[in-house]
Structures are given as structure tokens and as C-alpha cells.
Amino acid sequence: MLAGLRQHGNFPLPARADMNDVLAALARAAGWTVHPDGTTFRSSNQPHLPPPPPQLGMFQVAPVETPAFINTLNSYAIGTPLDSQASALQTDDSLSPSSLDSVVADRSIKTENYGNSSSANSLNCMDNDQLLRSSAVLAGDYTKTPYIPVYASLPMGIINSHCQLVDPEGVRAELRHLKSLNVDGVVVDCWWGIVEAWIPRKYEWSGYRDLFGIIKEFKLKVQVVLSFHGCGDTGSGDVLISLPKWIMEIAKENQDIFFTDREGRRSTECLSWGIDKERVLRGRTGIEAYFDFMRSFHMEFRNLSEEGLISAIEIGLGASGELRYPSCPEIMGWKYPGIGEFQCYDRYMQKNLRKSAVSRGHLFWARGPDNAGYYNSRPHETGFFCDGGDYDSFYGRFFLNWYSGVLIDHVDQVLSLATLAFDGAEIVVKVPSIYWWYRTASHAAELTAGFYNPTNRDGYSPVLKMLKKHAVILKLVCYGPEFTVQENDEAFADLEGLTWQVMNAAWDHGLPICIESALPCLDGDMYSQILDTAKPRNDPDRHHASFFTYRQQPPFLLQRDVYFPELRTFVKCMHGEAPQNGEG
User: Fold this and answer.
1) I need a surface site. Which of 129, 221, 224, 518 has the fewest CB within 10 A?
2) Catalytic residues (predicted)?
């Protein structure tokens, strides 16, 4: 890296330069003034770049203080010529802009890499000693352990709102890096709001066809995620994707197609499960609209499935593509560790609830709880979720059975048609990790998300039994050790306890599982935790994950020189090819 910088005219370095000299040189090139003591400030004539938005979900990322410098370092780390920085930061003006109420508003950046804010922030939070340090030694020997395929997700922004592949050469560069790490394949999100954007039953797959063709060049597998939800409403970054435009037009006349909270606020991220069997979508039910989309995908790419390019298809079943109600929407002001709110107040869900109450002979039960608090309440602050609260009363048990039953029925309906549409393909379903308030009696956050899992009841077994019926693969999310040790005790959180409850229940039902990382892997501790979860050391039945997925863009795509050895070791360990410390 130092030799490359010296060869570039804009980076004069001392003969015995260390990392501080490198950082200072790159900072000056990005327009920052560097004082002798190492501090920096931006000259007033330089354009101001806003800090990147925080990461989605409850985990906030530290703001970036020097965004231009980080962009310069990121691009140099993968070999992008520094002269191309200006063009790399320009947007493609040839694409028509889209407003916030359109299907997609995106930034079509034509650059060799698609860096996200979390990766840049992570680099910014590391000190120079960490950057210079060689890959950490990972403890343990995974030689001859089961082979677990490794997949890396591709960024959302590579397909724009017109279903066009934004930067084919940038995709090739990214796939080239992935191939050098010996990963097995990539994950691609196929968005309902892009493909069936404007007219019902009119599907545009051209951008995905081009993308799959490039992936095929590198002999990588593809896992496809059929995303029936929107994304980006809380300022998640460069891409904003809503439900199809024609759905939003219907909603102007009938907002009850969306999940609704007790105050009447609508969640436009996904459709209410109350319309699964209601013909309110231009003559179609919700289930029929999902099936038509799945069938269109299968007809368009059947040959790729037959060739083995497409190895699995993940079906989005709720908020964020996970099997859950949108009970904790940040757009409504929810913040971790709030318990969330029940989402059952659209007229179709209310009709379903009334029918259920009448069948039990208790019409007065046809209502949602009136003492369940608000999005940011704590369990002990409510009459419903507190110890000895109404959640365990006759009415509470009826309501929670009904609420979770609607979720299970939605799973059954969608997966029945998915099995029909894809005819033997591997199907994946993601179950959320709602781990805060897990060490309380009511498990309030799980209840509002649709999992009836208080301490006196196993709420995951009925769901897993339904998934087993349809022979799908269960996907679990792994957050990493830093979010285990930093949890606030006041939230009574237990990620590890929840993870093992779900994993053991899945294995008891004979259900295969896979692991997904929610955050970039930055050190050996996180790699070790993922390996221990994917390949439990002391399991007498030798259970292991079916595959592992980086759901967020891995940092090695941006800082290859820093992370390459450690990550390559991790991939080898997943493949059972080498000891964990074999690449140190």
C-alpha cells in the first residue's frame, strides 16, 4: 500500500512512513488540513458532505467525522485509481429521478464498489494500531468439520428503480474479490416494488437477468430473496424502496390494506395479513398477488434453477422480510428496547378477530388489549405485560393465540403456493431475533411481534412445525459478541438464550437451519462466535448450519488489505478445510 501511494504524485511520503503518515496524506488529498499534532479540519471552500445515516434497526453506528477521507481510503484499498475519485462520487443524471411516493428513490453510483455507511464507520472507529495489526489468531481447529457454504449479499443499489443494472463493471470487480475468497455464492434481493412497480401483473426482470448473467460468469451460486416489503423509510441509506406504485394507489382509497396500530397509524412497509384472502388488490387477494410474482420469477429464470445457478429462494413473509408483524417501526418513534405495539387494528384483522371471538362465545373479546402500553413502554409499565398481567388471563391467552395464529396461517398460505410455484427448489424463511425482554415472564416484545412465547409456553414450536410441513430452511440472525455484552440489563435481553431455544426447537422438528450475520465481521471474536453457532462443538448429534450468509456488505469488499487474511481463514473454517489459525 505504501509503495502504491509513493508512486502516485499526490501522495509524497517520508522514506520511513508509518500508518500515521499514510492517514495524513490521504486526509490532505481528500481536502482536509492536517495540523502537526495530527488533528484535522475541512477548509471552508470544500463542499460539506453530510454524515452517513445510522444503521437500520436498534444498533446505532458512530458518525463518520471525515467522510471524504474514508471514501478515498476505501477506494484505494481495493485498487481504484485515485484520479477516478471525482467520477466515482458523481450520480448518474441519465436516470429519471423518483420522488418519495414512487416505487424507488435511489442513488445510482457508478463506482467499482458499493460501500455502505456501516463499513466506513467501522473503519473510522478503528485506531491505527488495529489497521496495521495482522489478522487475529482464531482459536480452534475446524479441519474435517462439515462443509458449510458461505454467501455474501450484494448491495441493494445495484438495481435501480427502472430494473436496470447500474454498473456491470463494478459488479464484476466486486464478484472478483468474492471469488478470490472462495465464497460459494451471493445473495440478491428481488424487490416486488421494482419488478411489478407500476401495473399489476406486468413484471420487469431485465436488470436481474443481466445481473445473474454476470454472476454466472464467475461460477458463483445465487440465493434469491423475494422481498414483499418496503425498505428505507427510516433513512437507511442510498436506496428507498416502497411497495409497488399500484399498491400505493389502492391505499389512497383503502388504507386498511396496511397493518394498523391502536392509534390508527398505518405501517406501509408491508401488506396486512388481514387481506390474504380479501380481493382488494384489483381483483386479487394478497396471497394471489404474492403467488403471481413468485410464478413470474420461476418462469423467467427456470433455466437458471435447472442449471443449478439459483441454489435457494428466500420468501419474505413480513416486516423487513422476516416472519413477524411490524411491531417496532422506527418511523413511528420506536426505539430499542421498547416493547412495540400490536398491529391488528385494520378492519380486515378486526373482522377476523371478531369472528374468532364469536366462535368462542365471547363477543366482548373482539378487541385488542387496552392496557398494553405504547411502542417505547417497558413491560412493568403496562397492565397487560407486567408480571401477573392480563397477558396470562383468559382473555389475554385467547387474544395472543389468535394474534400468533394469524401469523402461522399466513406462513401456511404463502408457503403452500411457494412450494407449488418453485417445484422442489430450496425455500428459506427468516425468523427474527426479538431478544429484548426475553428474561421477563411475558416476553413482551416477542408477543407484539407475533410469537406467543412467554416463560410458561414454547411459542416457536407451532411456527417451526408449520415450516417443517413445507420442508423449508429456517434462517437465524447472528449479531455478534459486542451486542451481547453491551446490552443494557434493564432490557432483560438474552440473545444467546433465544438463539438456542429456536435452534434446539428447529432441530427437534428436523428442520434445517442457516445463519445470517446482521453486522459486518470485524474481529476474531465475532468469527469465532459465528463458527461456534454454525458448528456447535459439543452437540452429540453433530448438528450444523446448512449455509452462512453475510446479510450486510462485508468489510473486506472495502478494506481488503486489512481484513483479507482473517476473513479468508474464516471461509476455510466454514468449509472445514483448515484450522482457524491456519492463515494468521
Assistant:
1) 129
2) 322 (proton donor), 516 (proton acceptor)
